[in-house]
Amino acid sequence: MQIRSLLLGAAALLAGGCYTGVDVSGTGAPSGGSDSFTTTAGEGGTGDTGTDSDDGVPDDYDPSPVALRRLVGSQYAASVRLLLGDAAADAANPPDDAAINGFTAVGAAQLALGSAEVDRYEASARDIASAAVGAGTHLSHMDCTPTGPADVACMREFVQRFGRLAFRRSLENDELDRYTTVGLTTAGDFDEFYAGVESTLAAMLQSPLFLYQVETGEAGEDGQRRLRGTELATRMSFFLTGATPDGTLLDAAEAGELDNTDGLRESAFSLLEREEARGALGAFTEELLKLHELDGLPKDAVAFPTYDVDLAEAMHEETRLFIEHVGFESGDFSEMFDADYTFVNDVLAAHYGIPGEFGEEFVQVTLPPDQKRGGILGHASVLSVLAHVSSSSPTHRGKFVRETLLCTTIPAPPPGVSTDLPIGDGTETLRERLEIHMTDPSCAGCHVLMDPIGFALESYDGVGAFRTQDNNKPIDDASELDGTPVSGAAEVGAVLRENEAAHVCLVRNLYRHATGHIESDSELDALQDVTAAYIDSGYDLQTALVEIVGSPAFRLVGEPL
Amino acid sequence: MKPFRLHRRTMLRGALGGSTVALGLPVLEAMLNGNGDAYANGSGLPCRLVTWFFGNGCAVADVNNTGAGIRFAPGETGPGFAPTPQLQPLADRGVLEYCSVLSGFDIAAAAEHRRGHHDGVAGFFSGYPFVELPPNGANYASKFGGPSIDQVAAERLAGQTVIPSVQMAISKRIVGGEGPTLQYLSHQGPDQPLAPYFDPREAWDKLFGTFTVPDDPAKPARLSALDAVREDVRRLQMRVGANDRMRLESHLDAVAQLRGQIDALAPVCTLPPQTPQTNDDVEGQEQIEAVNAVMSELLAIAFACDITRVGSIQFTGSVGYTVFNNLGISRGHHDLTHDAAENEAVDQATIFTMDQFGVLLQALRDMPEGDGNVLDNSCILLGSDAAAGLTHSVFDQPCIVAGGGGGMLTHPGVHYRSESGENASDILLSCLQTVDPEATEAGGGIGVSTTPCSALQG
């Protein structure tokens, strides 16, 4: 089931040459040329590889090294909510995440915690513990009634029960002793049992066993390291629900129910039925589409007088609702590229010029064809983020399509090249200035991969509003994408939807987000199988998610570095 | 049953509520020798190191000839140089005499010219070539190749102050999409970037807010929690690979650091009350001047009270999109610096940026210490990530070394122009030697220097 699609159009682009060979197929297939840019993911598939194990793992499978992964902020907060309720989650204040290669999960797997983060975790843990004890949610982790501040058995019960959920495995004896002692000491100091509970709660929430996903795996007879049951449950739960596994899932893992891929898939499907699964998808797309940048995104008030916080929030909500719809309702996630409908409220309907009566509530509408919108590239959210403060940015938009939607890395400008836009006579459109720029061969090599895609979106200004003029001249949004003429978001999206690389790329991005690393060649092979199943399903997102979980790429890990 | 609740942090801010900022005499006279320039025990007055960064370089001298350099350094060399328009704000604030301008240097660590901005910021502030992370079809990203010079200094000064170093940032318009190199200024190593405080109130919390009152009832519980955490981290270290062991070592260091802070008594010094200044946008615009003023003041007080001796300030970000609304500019700074038509606006941004740098120098100068001031006993290194955004050149990036460096740096400042494109790491070594006179090298790999910049020697 290997997908090997090397686009002819893309190959033709390469002949023109970015200054280094670029794999524009996005499938990881070799880009050709002796001086290929070194970032291709290697061979796209090994075809006749044997699969000797009974869980479908090729015998030469070579997974990426496993690493400790700190919970990203949304996972931390969602886990606190699951463990201790809403009041505690509202008190959670984890440190900021840092992205690497575009993913906070990758940053979380590589960077060390520093003083600022540890300070923040301590303050957050104390605030959470205080809020939880205030709200009484700690009581859901104990059945005993303390006989007094020195009730060892009761404190131990609390530590054991809360600890198993917080650390995602049963506690070892020394851990039990340690956190029971923390609780009893404070209980003694204050002559109050629940002061001790609060104290040990705050301590456990600072433990590396809570703050990191600890995955070590276990080497099997075939020499491959498979994640242990509770490790797999944890990886799956964070991926599909955005939160730590609950007691039921841990029970299933400890009973061995996730050890076979059928049981694993079944468990994955049931997690996807939970409300949190929608939030987890939202967290993924939030990052992928850079929607978090809408919070505090500066726009020039002169160029865009209608832009304000309300509009930015409405844009954000549109995309959130749309992604949730194509992910969980429509059954066809590829509609993200070119759906002819979206969700608007009064603010957004005015922004898009959609006629009719609208209120604060968002409603589904069919897009009028005159603005050529369709799919996420027509969303004001995405168009605003992929723009400058006072203008659009064909380059940013094109780079996003290549890098984020097609998984093609654009190389850096070569040294010694002046990266400026030439000074014109002031009458040019942005497109015209960029086109002059592209007459310089040292710029054209890469900009030809990006700018033309953005030219097709020039009818949408820096806040995603439709326009017919730039710098008092008519907009020209006729362009082409890999050999196909396109103008407007819907047409660009339609070309992407027909491109297998876009679907492979979606799966790759989900995987990077889920595992915190960029896939190895072996893992990419396995993800090609996932993609094939996803395409076969008619682009059912849940199939993609479950197949990722069932894939060797998800279940196996390499030796840590 | 009524749930019991621990006391929230009982902070000094409570104890000091309503007190006014009273500065001065943080280093007690009794601790000084008869000359007022050294501790009575014979050691010199504490010396501090600060790195101060602004992104995207300066305006080019001539947009039609980008090889003609940038608008920054004066034409004449030596002491007593006449300030250029970019340096005039420092003269206006009366701190130009503390500034040495270094031009014509090249960043040896960036000799491979791999990527604009990354080369400039990592090469200039660490002296190590940055580490490129193969994107394999994802977004580009890189990490510093070694510690930034402020963190080398912090490591050398470890244990001498309650807080090893503090990181601050003024503009929030920074990019997070290309890895730690562009996002952070301070790095203990490739995997250990140090996040800055953007909010002055958080910076205050870190510098002045963590000293607990001696009988704080919450203290034993906090310490025992950290001890349990420390034990968990140690045990976890035994189960992971070497790479993760190193990351956990950093976690342990941070836990020990916090433990020490909770346990420390407040210094004999009048601490400032918590600041009301936030770093929130007002009507969609940043409060750059207000935030910069408070951050500069907090750092000056922390130095005077010897709470820390190392700081970094990221004024604007590498590839950052700060909008200088106060200058009538409506575009993001990075975008601006890549458009030749906006060269004059870029120049205005540089001039404003230098004025804001002057605010920090003034704050340090106005803080008396011994028979001089804190600026006399500090070394402030100003730099960027490119000479100009238009060229991404790492040759002749803007550079100032300010302060007396405890007598180690030439005073009054000079303009020194290298005729041979000397290694910018020489400047790092000179700065490092102000806090560690025994230091013999700075940077690493192709960027290493063993020869301090002689023009800076006082």
Note down, in words, how this protein is organized.
The complex is a heterodimer of chains A (561) and B (458). Helices cover 50% and strands 5% of the residues of chain A. Chain A is mainly alpha-helical and 561 residues long. Among the domains of chain A are: 168 residues, no CATH class; 212 residues, no CATH class. A 3-stranded antiparallel β-sheet of chain A has the order 3-4-11. A two-stranded antiparallel sheet of chain A has the order 1-2. A two-stranded antiparallel ribbon of chain A has the order 5-6. In chain A, helix 6 packs across helix 7. The longest helix of chain A is centred in the N-terminal third of the chain and has 21 residues. Chain B is an alpha/beta fold and 458 residues long. Chain B has an 8-stranded mixed β-sheet, sandwiched between helices. Classes of the chains: A mainly alpha (561), B alpha/beta (458). The interface between A and B is large, with 107 and 91 residues.
Mean pLDDT of chain A: 90
Largest beta sheet of chain A: what is the strand line-up?
3-4-11
How many distinct beta strands of chain B? 14
What characterizes the major β-sheet of chain B? 8 strands, mixed
Radius of gyration of chain A: 26 Å
What structural class results from the helix and strand content of chain A?
mainly alpha
In DSSP terms, counting alpha (H) and pi (I) runs of 4 or more, how many helices of chain B? Answer: 12
Order of helices and strands of chain B: HEEHEHEEHEHEEHHHHEHHEEEEEH
Question: Radius of gyration of chain B from the CA trace?
Answer: 22 Å
The overall pLDDT of chain B, averaged over residues, is 90
Instruction: Classify the secondary structure makeup of chain B into a structural class.
Output: alpha/beta
Helix content, binned percent of chain B: 25-40%
In terms of DSSP E residues, the strand content of chain A is under 5%
Oligomer state equals heterodimer
Q: Could you give the distance between the termini of chain B?
A: 70 Å
